[in-house]
Amino acid sequence: MKQRPNYAAGVAAVTWLLIIGVPLYALINTSLHGESVYADGGPLSAPTHLTTVNFGTVVSSGFLRDIGNTVVVAAMTVVIVLLFGVPISYAVVRGRGWTSSAVFRVFLLGLAIPAQAVIIPLFLIINHLGLYDTLWAIILPTAAFALPVSVLVLSGGMRDISGSLYEAMALDGASPARVLIQLVIPLSRGAIATTAVFAALQAWNGFLFPLIMTQSGSDKVVTLGLYNFVSEYGANVPALLAAVLLSAVPILIVYLFARRYLVMGLMGAGGK
Amino acid sequence: MERPGAAWAAPGLAFFFVFALLPMAGVVYLSFTSWDGLTSPKFTGLSNWNQFLSDGAVWQSTLLTGILLVGNMLVQAPLSILLGVWSAGYQRNRAVLSAVFFLPLLFSTAATSIMWRQLLDPNFGVPSKLGWLLGGNANLFGSQWGAITSLVLVTSWQYIPFHTLIYQGAARSIPETLYQAAAIDGAGRVRQFIHITLPQLRNAIITSSTFMVVGGLTAFDIVLLLTDGGPGTDTAILPFKMYQTAFQTYDFGYGSAIASFLLLVATGISLLLVKASGYDKMTSTMEGL
């Protein structure tokens, strides 16, 4: 059915484009200006007198090391979440009796726990384990708090595997471990990819755990690095905004090459 | 057929217990203690809770948390429903614009907050050059309502794209035949939206609201980085108040009382929403996740 064009929606969409676009223009424009040009013209000045000196400032202050730390944190978080999340979901979906549904309910309850509310005892536990001011102090809590959504996504994916496939493998006398490796994991690749991206994004965006659990420069992650720049750079706004821009580049790369999984990972439990 | 037993879930459960469930019990226990973060916590009975009940600042924080939550939902929900339904259309221009609308999601909350703090800075940012835009009041962060408004606007800027994605997915799964039937009956665009689209988006609205409520109750980084709880304590919402009490004045016992309250409110609300969404029924609604 051919519809007439929706002009009201078109106007609204262009308005929204400005709301999204103008701040991004200001961000990029400022990060490419020297301090004095910025002081005269402000964030929305014309894109002239461009310079890349701010990115040099940011890089030489160790921001790349911060990005490296975040990459390590994100990668380890993904590994731990999948290492625990896949067997849990397998047991939830294929297990029998009250235990499997009880396990699922534990993680549903976990969905509701805000990290902010339990940060004080977590701080105590991390201290007791001797992990304070290490990357593990960020990785372990981040992974634990990404687990509920991951179990939800993974068990959803595994539930879609047809029962006849399980029966076929059972006829071959396959053990649960073999079924997991040869059937469940290959057929829930989509859910696994979604979970991996979701966990990585949680680690990438994480601010509270790094703020509380680490203090030295050697294990500083990107979000905390940005926070420190605010006081370090003071009035050097162009350098600060160059750091903000730089911090988004890794996710931009994921967006360009794996848009579908990035979107699904963002949605996490909302992706149904 | 041999089934995987509960042992498969045990390592993950143990891990989750140590880093999520145990702290949940721990925060309630610590709320009955006095602890400076260095020595061992000392049991002090109800003293933190007595202080909590008579602490006007905590009630101000609770009220602020509520105001911010409602403000965020009032701005974000209608805009993201409209944008989501709009971007669900398969027209080429909509696809291109949707890709641009997604961009704020590439930034972490910390990055977004820092960017906006600078862009809205009264001395160097946009207000210093284009003050007339804000009616002459260049310092948004100087008044309570200005600061609350800036928090709502920045939160919306970053998270509307996320909620839009939820609605886009949901709107695309509405059967086209419903609209065709309505069009034959002579229903216009607005009536189709009200009588078909909105009711069909029910589950998406619940999902999106869950994220907004939980996110709103726990918004911490954006407050710290955008307003630092100020001016004064005018935007010190509960998580921020908890952070200050525990990690800046080292009163971990009282901080735990505030955190327990936050835990109670957040868990209560999200369990209600989970019930409403049917997430707790393991079958049917979970299928196709």
Q: What features would you describe in this structure?
A:
The complex is a heterodimer of chains A (272) and B (289). With 272 residues, chain A is mainly alpha-helical. Chain A has 2 domains: 7-51; 64-221 and 250-271, MetI-like fold. Chain A contains 15 helices and no strands. Chain A has helices spanning 7-31, 35-41, 53-60, 63-94, 97-111, 119-128, 136-159, 163-171, 176-187, 189-205, 208-213, 222-233, 237-247, 249-257, 259-267. In chain A, helix 3 (53-60) crosses helix 13, helix 7 (136-159) packs antiparallel against helix 10 (189-205) and helix 14 (249-257) crosses helix 15. The two termini of chain A are 28 Å apart. The mean pLDDT of chain A is 89. With 289 residues, chain B is mostly helical. Chain B has a domain at 59-235: MetI-like fold (Orthogonal Bundle), CATH 1.10.3720. Chain B has helices at residues 10-30, 47-53, 56-87, 92-101, 109-119, 126-129, 144-172, 176-184, 189-200, 202-217, 221-226, 238-248, 252-277, and strands at 33-34, 42-43. In chain B, strands 1-2 form a two-stranded antiparallel sheet.
CATH architecture of the largest domain in chain A: Orthogonal Bundle
Number of strands of chain A: 0
- Unreliable spans of chain A are none
Structure annotation, total helices of chain B = 13
> What's the rounded overall pLDDT mean of chain B?
87
Oligomerization status of the protein chains: heterodimer
End-to-end Cα distance of chain A: 28 Å
Strand content range of chain A: under 5%
Taking the alpha carbons of the first and last residues of chain B, their distance comes to 26 Å
Order of strands in the sheet with the most strands of chain B?
Answer: 1-2
The helix content of chain A is: over 70%
Supply Rg of chain A.
23 Å
Highest CATH level, the class of the largest domain in chain A = Mainly Alpha
For the largest beta-sheet of chain B, the strand count, sense and barrel status come to: 2 strands, antiparallel
Q: What's the CATH class of the domain at 59-235 in chain B, please?
A: Mainly Alpha
**Helices and strands of chain B: which structural class?**
mainly alpha
What is the number of beta strands of chain B? 2
What's the CATH topology name of the largest domain in chain A? MetI-like fold
